[in-house]
Amino acid sequence: MPLIRELLLGPRRFSDLRTSLGGISANVLTQRLEGLEDAGVLIRRKLPPPASVQVYELTPWGYESAPIFQALGRWAVRSPHHDPTKPFSPVSLMLSLRTMFSDAAAGDLKARIQLIMRGEAFFWIRKKGAISIGRGVIEDPDLTIIGSPSDIAGYVYVGAPLTTLGVEGDLKLARRLPSYFPMPAKALGPA
């Protein structure tokens, strides 16, 4: 599942996948990629010059798994033991920011947010009530946030100080951000 999750924002090179999956061994990653390719979940292709590198990407059927990850994310944050500040990948944070966003709390918010994590650019955009997330640089973001995925999650989800992050742009938006991502009540543990 983590491999599919890491491909939900688009194609990735083998080395990028290995890094984002916490240093998984090359043999294990190769086996998992081959298994998912054989199952029709992903394909392997070569990018045209000048890149000329091999990438892995989800098939249309593979992308249909996105709602499963959203449902699992909503379910997991209700665990009494869930800690949103524990280390995780930038893609996990981006998927979480799409999943945990509250339309009711945000009202008619329009925002273009650039997030820089581990030297890689990601975007979160809300326009006309729809959210889009992805990799890459956007022009004229309303807000740019620079930090680790855990530090950003700490600010958005548990109230860590904004000063733990690099912030450029609309500071009012930055200060309101946590209110748009309310955490659900924790599930009751065993009696």
Order of strands in the sheet with the most strands?
5-4-3-6-7
The Rg value, from CA coordinates, equals 17 Å
Q: Return the CATH class of the largest domain.
A: Alpha Beta
Largest sheet: 5 strands, mixed
Describe this entry's structure for a reader.
- The protein has 191 residues and is α+β, with helices and mostly antiparallel strands.
- It folds into two domains: 2-64, Orthogonal Bundle (Arc Repressor Mutant, subunit A); 68-180, Nonspecific Lipid-transfer Protein, Chain A (2-Layer Sandwich).
- It is built from nine helices and seven strands.
- The protein has helices spanning 2-7, 14-20, 26-38, 60-63, 66-76, 90-99, 103-106, 149-158, 171-176; strands spanning 42-46, 54-58, 111-117, 120-127, 130-135, 143-146, 166-169.
- The chain has a five-stranded mixed beta sheet. Strands 1-2 form a two-stranded antiparallel sheet.
- β3 (111-117) and β4 (120-127) form a beta hairpin.
- α5 packs across α6 (90-99).
- It is globular, with a radius of gyration of 17 Å.
- The two termini are 31 Å apart.
- The model has no long low-confidence stretch (mean pLDDT 93).
Q: What's the SSE blueprint?
A:
Elements: H1 2-7, H2 14-20, H3 26-38, E1 42-46, E2 54-58, H4 60-63, H5 66-76, H6 90-99, H7 103-106, E3 111-117, E4 120-127, E5 130-135, E6 143-146, H8 149-158, E7 166-169, H9 171-176
Parallel strand pairs: 3-6
Antiparallel strand pairs: 1-2, 3-4, 4-5, 6-7
